[in-house]
Every structure is written in C-alpha cells, then in structure tokens.
Amino acid sequence: MSRFKFFVLSFLSAGCCLNAQSTVWLDQLDLSVATQGNGKPGVNTSVDGKPLMVAGEVFKRGFGTHAESSLLIKLNGKATKFSALVGLDDEMKGHDPAVEFEIYGDNKKLWSSGVMHLGDKAKPVSVSLKGIKQLELVVADGGNGPYYDHADWVNARFETAGVSTLETFNPIASEPYILTPKPAATPKINSATVYGVRPGSPFLFRIAATGDRPMTFAAKNLPEGLKIDPQTGIITGKIAQKETYEVELMAKNAKGSASKKLKIESADRIALTPTMGWNSWNCFGHEVSADKVKRAADALVKSGLVNHGWNYINIDDSWQYNRNGKDPSFNGQFRDKDGYILTNSKFPDMKNLGDYIHGNGLKMGIYSSPGPWTCGGCAGSYGYEKQDAESYAQWGVDYLKYDWCSYGGVIDGLPDHDPNKVPSLAFNGGSDLDKGVKPFKLMGNLLRQQPRDIVYNLCQYGMGDVWKWGDEADAQSWRTTNDITDTWASVKNIALAQDKAAPYAKPGNWNDPDMLVVGVVGWGNPHQSKLKPDEQYLHISLWSIFSAPLLIGCDLEKMDDFTLNLLTNDEVIAVNQDALGKQGVCLNTLGELKIYVKDLEDGGKAMAFANFGREKVKLAYKDFKKLGISGNQTVRDLWRQKDIAKINTGMGSLALDIPAHGVAYYKFISNQ
Ligand code: GLA
Questions:
Q1: Which residues are catalytic?
Q2: What is the 402 CA–ligand 1 centroid distance (Å)?
Q3: 10 Å Cβ neighbour count for 139?
C-alpha cells in the first residue's frame, strides 16, 4: 500500500472531521410512524401524554408507547451504539401490566429485557450497532395480555458516525385503494338465502337490493300472515305455523328485474346467518344518545348499506343512568318503584326509538350486564332480569348484548360491585364454570319467554370456553375475545385466536371476535381507523370468512369511499352470510402467511390468504391438497368480483402476490 493510501484510510477509519461521533436522541426522530397497541406515540411523554415516570423516577427524554409496539429505524451502518433505560410507566398504578422490551438488528434479536412489571426499576440497555442496517425497537406483551402496558424507552439515544439524524419508517403501505366495483343499475337482491323466525313472533325483513331507484318489490309464496310493502320491500306480519317456506323475492326497476330464493324457517332457531349491523360503542362510547342512534339508522339507509344486508342498529352502554355520571344527563333514579329500568335523559322514549328503527325495516339492539353495573358504571340487570327482559320486549328490542362487567363481584360476594375495583373472575371449569354460566342462562330463559325474537349475544370475552355452552344459554352469538381496538396488534391477535372456537359455529350459533374497526372510530374520541388499508382488507376478509357477526363500529355519517367499498362488497358479505354456517379455519401456514378455508353451501370454498408478516408474499402456490381441493378450479377474486385464474390443482400453481399485512380473498369453484 502506498504511503498516501495508508494515510487516507487511517484518516477515515479514525473518523476524523468527516465522520465525527455524535449523539442522536430517539425522541428527535419521527416517532409517529411507530405501530402500537393503543394511543399515540409519546415524544418525551408517556403514551397518555404525561411526564415519563418509571418506578418513581421522572425522565425528561424518551418515547412513551403501548404494547404491542414496534418502531423501525434505518441505520445503514451509520450508528454504532444504542443505549436507553426501559420500564413500565407509573401512570398505570393499580393495574398489573407486564411487558418485554426487545431490540432487533436486521431481524435478529440483539437484546431482551425479560418480562418486566410495574414498579420494576428502569433497566439499562446498551447494544452495539456496528454494521446494522435496520433496527427495530419492540415492546411485546409480557404474557398476560396487552392491557395497561404503558411502556417507556427513556434517555434513549444513538451514537452515530457523524450523522445528525436517522430515519424511522413503517413498511406497511398507507395509500387507500378501492377494489369493489360499484353496484350495477339493474336490480340485484343481496339478502341472505335463509331467515329464521319463531312461530308467533313479529316478523320484520327488509329485502336488501342494489340498483337504481325507484324500485318495486314483490314476493311469491309468502306464508300466511306475512305481507310485503311493494315500495320499500319490507315484509312484516306473523307466522303461526312451525314450518319451512320457500319464498321468491323479486325486485324491479326501469333497467330490469331480479329474483332470489329465500327460505323462511319458522321454528326454534333464529339468527341463521351472522348478525349484520351497527353498534354505537366503537364510535360514540358513552356519548351515545337517541338522536345519534336515529341518525345512524338514517345513515344506514341513506349510504346504501341497507341494500347490502346491514340491518341492526344496536345501542351499547350508556342508555341507562350511571352511578357516578359527571354528565347531569346520567344522574337519575335507576329504576321505578316496580324495578323497571329508567332510561337516561338522552333516551327520552325507547319505544318511540324502536318504532323509528323498525319503520325503516331495521332492527334495534340494546346492551346490559348480568352484574349490578355495566362496564361503564351504568345500571345493570342484576336482581331485575325479569323486568329488564319485559322492558326490552315492550320497547321492541330485537338484540341484547349482555356484558359480564361487574358480575365477578357478585360471585365473589363483594359488597361493592365497582367495576373498576373488582377484577372480573376468570372462570375456567368446575364449579366456577357453573357460577359464570348461571346469569347468562337466567337471561336467556327470560328472553325466550318474551313475545318477540331477541337475538342474544354473550359478552364475557370468551371465559370458560363460552363457545361450548353458549347455545345452552339460548344465545345466538358470543364474544371470543377481549375488546378490539383499531390497531394491527389487536386485529392480528384476535384473528389468530379464532380457530379453537370454529367447530362450534353453526346456523344460530356464532363466534364473535368483536366489532369492526374501520372508518371513523374512537370510543367518543373520533379519528380515522389507525389500521392501514391492507390491514383493513385483511380485517374484513377474515371477519367474513370467520362467519363473525358483522357490526360496524364507525360513525355512519362520516364514511368515505374506501370504507364504503370495504362494507358493500356483496361477494365478501355472501361468504359471511352463507347458509351452511361453517366458520373458516386455517389449513395451511407458510411462514407468516395463513390460509383460511371456509366451505360454502354451493360446494365452493372461500379462501383468505392472509399475510401477517411485514414482507410481501410472492410465490407460486401448489399445495392445494392441504386446502381440501382437487381437480380443475376457477379462482374468483372476491374483492375485485372477477375470475382471475383457472387451475388444474394436480399440475398447476396459483400466483400469489400479497402485500405486507394484506390479504387475497378468493373463492374456488370446482369445474367438475
Ligand atoms: C365492554 C365491552 C365493550 C363495550 C363496553 C361498554 O368493554 O366488551 O364491547 O360494550 O364494555 O362499556
């Protein structure tokens, strides 16, 4: 080596003036691109926007986040060291969060904190980053669910080889794109092919049909006791007999006509296809009112959602009086002298609201708890179950969500059933199971005694494997999970936990992985869903293939074209509403790609190729045997509503190109 070359190389490797060492603080980077389980990334604050505090010590600098959290940083070899202190933020005192901090360099784990609990002193970390191109800071759940996991990276900084900043990024695409074609001008009937009603119960069915208006409707072979309004397509009346009827629905407009068979089963079972509608909780939270509910009903009709089969308008928590409402409209007497529940002043006349909803051919849902208090501290049904069931029937309620909340306190015999103090009892088997089942059976039995059909939804987050006994409690659906939020971690974790309950799904019995988190959601604090467009396609596709009740959680007056495209694809909806009532399950896993398969009544199979990974999946898929198909198949893309391939499963392959966190949702139709 020449003396000159030697001089230059030593000069550069010494990092002289061109490459001076400098410190870049984590809080100086763009943290907004981080994905996390809840809230917004805190820059020098906790996730709740408070000063960062770990085990009593306050820190000025850092990143406050919430498990499960991931922040990606491009280093390209420009950083030499990362150091920080990590711990749980004290703002969650009184709860029991647990997390694990992890650091990955080029997808290899460089360091892990081990499981940390609230009150643990901040743990120091220092890792060498020499040669690393991409760094990921992760906060994983510590094994007890991602609840209250407010986690802090404090005094976090990089030593760099002279650069003054580093670039954070999020690999998931964020541009919305529309796949669902607009409905044709000619009539098309989209209602499910089967409908259950009990003999003697009021019948209410609105034909869901797309196409230009005005449109007129008719129905052939309607059972005695039913009549159709030709202008609205709303069928009402009562069927006396226990019998199955084959009806033909018809719709006509200036452009043409359409017809579709509807099997009406007048028997014991109701909710023969999963419930489709709207619920107030994910958008309005405790700010719900009769006026907002009426407006939601109007918007369901005006937006055209009703033409695709969406028909329940469900009021969640906070129609009752609350025991500690700061809002004066929540302060009032819970019940009258005979124990009948009184509605708070935002719901002046529940019967009138029911009539309004029914007038549009829609159904009304309501919410309560078997405990003395709902999750939000409103009056629950404990001790007044009979009166409540009677009130619901009198108001015209068609659906009840019955939420565990404070019932744990009843079992524990606690004098104060404060839902904030009483931990809900997780019942798993033996006598605990009986105690946990009892209140749900009690209400189920009372609902059956009412002179109308009330679809019964159990909300106890899956405890005691509710899918195994929900039917015995006369329920039609049951929550399998804790509450959903509009984050990737929430949707992913819920989705991956559904297979165990799948064998129990059938017409009249549905597993409920919680409501939809697309559109403007926010639990009283409205914002666009934080799910990326591909994540939203995956969410809707999986809820469709899971045969999940589909309850829209967004503000229906604020839907954009992208949200409408997600909620009005009749082929995606038809898989969910398929009369066979099977729940799709994962039959093949290839790395982060999971392939869910659902058998359909017509012999076809719906398949969701769901990519849970951060890299796109591009491959030629051949393992059709694993998916239970053989011979020649036509592959139809459900989101695009068009056939995309014909394959011979013995010899051919299917080209998959699935975005990170995205999905390909297909129907396979056998050509033999
Ligand atoms: C629980 C339920 C939610 C909602 C709230 C209302 O958290 O799981 O879906 O009903 O209660 O307080």
A1: 403, 483
A2: 10
A3: 30
Q: Where are the domains of the chain?
A: 19-169, 188-266, 586-670
For the chain, count helices (H), then strands (E): 11, 40
117 Cα to the center of ligand 1, angstroms:
26
- Alpha helices in 361-418, H assignment, sequence order: 385-395, 407-412
The domain at 586-670 falls in which architecture? Sandwich (2.60)
CATH label, 188-266, candidates 3.40.190.10, 1.10.730.10, 2.60.40.10, 3.40.50.300 = 2.60.40.10
Q: Whose CA is closest to atom 6 on ligand 1?
A: 317
Looking at 252-320, list the stretches that DSSP marks H as alpha helix, in order from N- to C-terminal side.
281-284, 290-302
Q: How many CA atoms lie within 13 A of 425 on its CB side?
A: 21
Tabulate helix, strand, coil % of the chain (nearest 5): 20, 35, 45
Confidence (pLDDT) at 654: 98
Mutate to test the pocket of ligand 1, among 282, 284, 314, 317 (most ligand atoms within 8 A of CB): 317
Question: Residue range 261-280: average pLDDT?
Answer: 98
Q: pLDDT, tens digit, for every residue of 90-120?
A: 999 999 999 999 999 998 999 999 999 999 9
pLDDT tens figures, 429-474: 666 888 899 999 999 999 999 999 999 999 999 999 999 999 999 9
Give the distance between the most distant pair of CA atoms in the chain.
Answer: 104
Q: Do domains 19-169 and 586-670 have the same CATH topology?
A: no
Distance CA 325, CA 321 (A): 8
Q: Are 111 and 95 in contact (CB under 8 A)?
A: no
Indicate the pTM of the whole model.
0.91
Cα dist. 415→54, 431, 433 in Å? 34, 21, 22
